[in-house]
Design brief:
- Helix content is 32%, strand content 24%.
- With 472 residues, it is of the alpha/beta class.
C-alpha cells in the first residue's frame, strides 16, 4: 500500500461528505495538493474551496487530474461513476475513505467512537476536551465542531480521535487503543441485512481494540457480554449499575449541572451548555475517556463548560430571552428513530409547555422502509409533524415507499406531508404567525439530507415575525 510521505497529489471523489472532507483537510494541512469532485456545491465544499482546494461538480473524465498518486472515494459514490471507473481501469491507487483512515492511524494512539447514533457528538466532545486541556490530538470528526468551525485539526501529539463509521463496515479497518460503542440499533440494513449481522459487526469492532486497551460501552447494550477487550467499562446517564454515570442532574437556563460518578472518584458540578439529556450521557462517555488518559478533573470540567456543541446537533438557531414567549428553533441531524426520540424528548424536557412542531426529512428509502413504524412512534412525541419527501442520497426510489409510509403509521393526526418548496409558506401562514401566546412555540428541523438548506430561510422568517435575536 502507498505511503503517505510519497503522496504529492490526491483526488477525492465525494469530497463534500463530512468524513471525506476531514481527510481532505488532513492532506491539505500536510502541504499535499488536494482536489476533488462532489455532485452539488454546499457550504462545506465552498469552505474547502476557500482554503485552496479545487472542486468540480461535473462528472466528466476530461476534467479530472491525471497526475495524482492517490484517489480516495466514499462507498456512497456509485460504482459506475465515470472518474472512479477511469482511475480503476488505468491502474491508479484507489482507496476507500476507511482504508485511508487505516493508513493515517496505523502508528498512532487511537480513540475510536462507534455507534448508530451519538458517535459524532461524543467524538467531538473527546477531541475538544483533549484540545482545550492541552493534551492535544488529531481529530477526524463526522460533524463541524462549533468551537473551531471545522471537522479536522492536527496536533504534534500522536493521538487520533476518530469517528468510527459502521456504514459499509468501515470501522473494522481501525485499530483502537480506546474504543467507545454508544449504540447499535437497527440501521444500514441495506448493507447488513439483519439486526443480528449489524450487531456482529460491532462485536467484531470490539475485538479490534489493541492489547491493553479499553472498551467503553453504553450500559445495557444488546449482546454486550460478547464484547471483547482487556478492559471493559460501561457508562449510563443515571443507572448506578454502570461503571460510570451522572447523578444529581439539574437544569439551569437550558444548561445542565451534574456530578459524574467515576470508578473510585467523583467529578462534581460539571456544567454542560448543550441541550438534551442524551448529551449529558454523551459527555459522561467523553469524560470517562479523558479521565482514563489522566487529564485532571479541573481541566475536564473547564473544557466541558466551554464546549459549544456540534453544528446540527441540538443546535439552537433561534432562542428567545424568556422562557414563556416567542419561538425556540432547534436544528438537528437526527435521521434514526432513536435519535429523533432523544431529540424531541430532550427539547420538550427543557421547554415543557411549548407547542412542539417537528419538520422531518427522512433519509434513504431503505431506512424509511425498514424503520417506518419506529419513526412514527418517535414523531408521535411532537404536537405537530411536517414530513418532507424522502431524501434519496445514494439510492433509487423504492415503489410504495415515501414519507406517507411513516405518516400512515402515526397515531398523531396533526401530520402534514408537503414538499420542500411548500414548507416556508406553510410555516409562515400556519405556525410562525400565531406563536403560542401563553407559553411560546418550539420548532425543530431534523434530517441528514438537504433540509439544512432551509435553516437560514426559516431563521429569517422567525426573526421577521418575532423580532428576536438568534443565539450567538
Amino acid at each position: 500500500m502507498i505511503q503517505i510521505e510519497n503522496i504529492k497529489k490526491v483526488y477525492f471523489i465525494g469530497i463534500g461528505g463530512i468524513g471525506m472532507s476531514a481527510i481532505a483537510r488532513y492532506f491539505h494541512a500536510r502541504g499535499i495538493e488536494v482536489s476533488g469532485y462532489d455532485k452539488t456545491p454546499t457550504q462545506l465544499t465552498k469552505t474547502l474551496e476557500q482554503s485552496g482546494i479545487n472542486i468540480i461538480h461535473e462528472e466528466h473524465v476530461g476534467l479530472i487530474p491525471k497526475d495524482v498518486q492517490l484517489v480516495v472515494f466514499t462507498p456512497a459514490v456509485p460504482a459506475a461513476h465515470a472518474a472512479l471507473l477511469y482511475y480503476r481501469q488505468n491502474g491508479y491507487q484507489v482507496l476507500k475513505r476507511s482504508e485511508v483512515l487505516e493508513l493515517i492511524s496505523k502508528s498512532s494512539f487511537n480513540i475510536c467512537v462507534a455507534g448508530t447514533h451519538g458517535k459524532t457528538t461524543i467524538t467531538a466532545m473527546i477531541a475538544h476536551i483533549l484540545r482545550h486541556s492541552g493534551f492535544g490530538c488529531n481529530a477526524f470528526l463526522g460533524g463541524i465542531a462549533t468551537n473551531y468551525n471545522t471537522n479536522f485539526w492536527s496536533d504534534p501529539n500522536n493521538v487520533c480521535v476518530i469517528e468510527a463509521d459502521e456504514y459499509d463496515r468501515s470501522f473494522l479497518r481501525l485499530n483502537p487503543d480506546i474504543a467507545i460503542i454508544s449504540s447499535m440499533d437497527p440501521d444500514h440494513l441495506d448493507i447488513y441485512g439483519t439486526e443480528q449481522t449489524l450487531q456482529q459487526a460491532f462485536i467484531d469492532f470490539s475485538k479490534k481494540v489493541k492489547q491493553g486497551g479499553m472498551l467503553l460501552t453504553i450500559f445495557g447494550l444488546k449482546r454486550g457480554r460478547e464484547m471483547k477487550a482487556d478492559e471493559l467499562l460501561t457508562y449510563s446517564l443515571q443507572n448506578e449499575a454502570a461503571d460510570v454515570n451522572a447523578s444529581n442532574i439539574q437544569i439551569m437556563s437550558g444548561s445542565y449541572v451534574f456530578n459524574v460518578m467515576l470508578k473510585g472518584s467523583i467529578l462534581d458540578r460539571v456544567v454542560l451548555n448543550m441541550g438534551g439529556m442524551h448529551n449529558v450521557e454523551n459527555v459522561v462517555a467523553a469524560i470517562t475517556v479523558a479521565h482514563r488518559l489522566g487529564i485532571s478533573g479541573d481541566k475536564i470540567k473547564a473544557a466541558v463548560e466551554a464546549f459549544a456543541g456540534v453544528k446540527r446537533r441540538f443546535e439552537y438557531i433561534v432562542k428567545t430571552g424568556t422562557d414563556k414567549e416567542g419561538i425556540i428553533y432547534i436544528d438537528d441531524y437526527a435521521h434514526h428513530p432513536e435519535e429523533l426520540k432523544a431529540l424531541i424528548t430532550g427539547a420538550r424536557t427543557l421547554f415543557k409547555q411549548r407547542t412542539c412542531t417537528v419538520v422531518f426529512q427522512p433519509h434513504l428509502f431503505t431506512r424509511t422502509r425498514d424503520l417506518a413504524s419506529a419513526f412514527a412512534e418517535s414523531l408521535d412525541l411532537a404536537d405537530t409533524v411536517i414530513l418532507l419527501p424522502v431524501y434519496p442520497a445514494r439510492e433509487l426510489p423504492i415503489e410504495g415507499i415515501s414519507s406517507n409510509t411513516i405518516a400512515e403509521r402515526m397515531q398523531n393526526k396533526h401530520v402534514h406531508v408537503i414538499t420542500k418548496e411548500e414548507l416556508l409558506p406553510f410555516l409562515q401562514n400556519r405556525f410562525l404567525t400565531r406563536a403560542n401566546q401563553e407559553y411560546g412555540e418550539l420548532l425543530i428541523t431534523a434530517g441528514a439530507g438537504d433540509i439544512d438548506q432551509l435553516v437560514e430561510p426559516l431563521k429569517k422568517i422567525i426573526q421577521q415575525n418575532e423580532h428576536i435575536n438568534d443565539v450567538q
